[in-house]
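INFO batch 0412 | record 1 of 1 | parsing
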Amino acid sequence: MEGREIIHSGILGPGRLDRALAEAIPALSRARIQALVDDQALTVSGKTVNDASSKKFEGQSFELRVPAPRPDKAAPQDIELDIIFEDEHLIVVNKPAGLVVHPAAGHADGTLVNALLHHCKGKLSGIGGVQRPGIVHRIDRDTSGLLVVAKTDKAHEGLAKLFAAHDIERRYLAVVIGHPSPPAGTISTQIGRSTTNRKKMAVLPEGKGKHAVTHYRTIEQFKDATLVECKLETGRTHQVRVHMAHIGHPLIGDSTYNNRRKAFKFGPNQSHFSRQALHAVSLGFIHPITGEKLGFESSLPDDIQLLLTSLKV
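INFO prediction complete | emitting tokens
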């Protein structure tokens, strides 16, 4: 997979060329095959073909040359990972708070992608021709919990379809200020970029932004706070944080969406919680390659456990 060209060959089945090739080469997505055909990497019966929609090649022999995946611009870095599950197609990690998922402005390295490039060296078949892990969803830097990442082009395509169809089970635990009333319910709004602060997301009027649905329920109440479970029907940026703030119960430690003048303090020393109290506690989906139903759970990290202990006192 690493550092060498791969040549696939065989006999084409019926139907569109790109679909026939995808059936003959399960490791490649149709999008990747279409790009290769456009790059004149395909020959049929010895002749170069660049029309992926053609239906006239059934029964003919083909040869598809897949170049070695290019190295990702991000550098591999030896960063410790808490790996919950891994096979040749995908990997599920338990991300700690403070770890950025993908390199971006202000975070050029030291990210989950850098760590995965090191861990998966020699095991990445190339996402879109680049040797990189396939990020299909993200959780915020200061949110902890479960995240699934593709290792192959085909798994990346399959996971992306699951997320687009909302066929991923995601459950978060959050500690919010106050007591939601009713104690359980569904929040359904439009979420998009704030018109007053481009670094924030916001609930927008109907017809703007993207539809977002969160189902919440109270797990445990404390004097001034509540532990709530949030199940995501959609997966918008900052969805849980925006929705809980929208109903008047922002997350403890969330300086971005807590508009209250006084910061929440807890414990005998009246401490401030150093991040939003949010953890991706469970993740479930159908494996995009094997079809197996997978489900994973992650215990609350120490800092949220300590917060809950303090709130009980």
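INFO post-check: The mean pLDDT is 88.
INFO record closed
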